[in-house]
Amino acid sequence: MTSDIDISKKNAGYFAAELIQDGMAVGLGTGSTVFYAMERLSERISSEGLDMIGVPTSFQASMRAREYGIPLSVIDEYPSLDIAIDGADKIDSSLRMIKGRGAAQTLERCVADAADLFVVVADESKMCEKLHGPVPVEVLPFALGLFERRIRELGGIPSIRLGVKKDGPVITDSGNFEVDCDFGFIDEPELLQSAINNMPGVLSCGLFTEFTDRTKVVIGNENGVNIF
Ligand SMILES: O=C(CO)[C@H](O)[C@H](O)COP(=O)(O)O
C-alpha cells in the first residue's frame, strides 16, 4: 500500500522532473524522493523524447538511473549543470539543511555546487524550525580517532555509522567512514559547517548552508506541492 509519505515524495519528485528542459545537464541526488523524479524523467524521455543527461551523486543514483534508461555522465565531463535535484533530511525556513542519511553528502555537495539551481525535494516531515539531529560526516579512516576527539571538543557526540547487512562500519562510495555527530539543536549552522569541514581528514559534512541563494525547495504533500 502507498503511504501518505510516499505520495508526498512522489508529488515533490514529479514536480521537480517537470522543471527539466531539452538539452539540460541534471545532477541526480540520492534517496527515495529523487527516485520519483527519476521515474518521471524516465517517462518523459520515453513519451516526449526529452533530451537530457544526468550526473549521479552515488552508486545508488547511477544504478537506479540506468534502470530508468536515463543517459548518464560524470562531473568531469559536465562541471556546469543546469539543475541538481536532491533530497534532504532536515530543512529550516532559511533553506539550510542537513543531508547525508544515504552517506552521499560529499558527492552531493560537488554536484550541488556545479548546478545553477539546486532543487531539493522532500515531504513535509523534513521541515523544521531549527536544524537538529545528527550531522553526518564523511571521514578518512586514517583520521577517525582525531576526528572523534575534535567533535567532542566542539560539543558533539560522534557515532560511527554501522552497516545493516554488513558487519562493521558503513564504507562510503569513496571508501571512507560515515560518522553521525549529534549536536542537538544547532544555533549557528554556518559556523558548525565550516568548523567541521575544516577538520583534518573530513571530506564533507551533511550541513548544507551555502546554496540558499540558488535553492528551490519543493515540499510534497498528499495533494500537491509547496515551493519555498
Ligand atoms: O541526503 C541524502 C542522501 O545522502 C538524501 O537525499 C536524504 O537522506 C533524503 O532521502 P529520502 O528522499 O529517501 O528521504
From TrEMBL:
The keyword Isomerase belongs to this UniProt entry's keyword annotation:
yes
Q: Which GO terms describe its cellular component?
A: cytosol
Give the record's pathway.
Answer: Carbohydrate degradation; pentose phosphate pathway; D-ribose 5-phosphate from D-ribulose 5-phosphate (non-oxidative stage): step 1/1
Q: Which residues form the active site?
A: 108
Chain residues that bind substrate: 30-33, 86-89, 99-102, 126
UniProt keywords (A-Z) are: Isomerase
Q: Which Pfam families match?
A: Rib_5-P_isom_A
One GO biological-process annotation of the entry reads: pentose-phosphate shunt, non-oxidative branch
Q: Supply the EC number(s).
A: 5.3.1.6
Which GO molecular-function terms appear in the entry? Answer: ribose-5-phosphate isomerase activity
Ribosomal protein among keywords: no
Which reaction is recorded as catalysed by this protein? aldehydo-D-ribose 5-phosphate = D-ribulose 5-phosphate
Query: What is this protein for, i.e. what is its function?
Result: Catalyzes the reversible conversion of ribose-5-phosphate to ribulose 5-phosphate.
* Similarity comment: family membership: Belongs to the ribose 5-phosphate isomerase family.
Q: How does it assemble?
A: Homodimer.
Name of the protein in question: Ribose-5-phosphate isomerase A
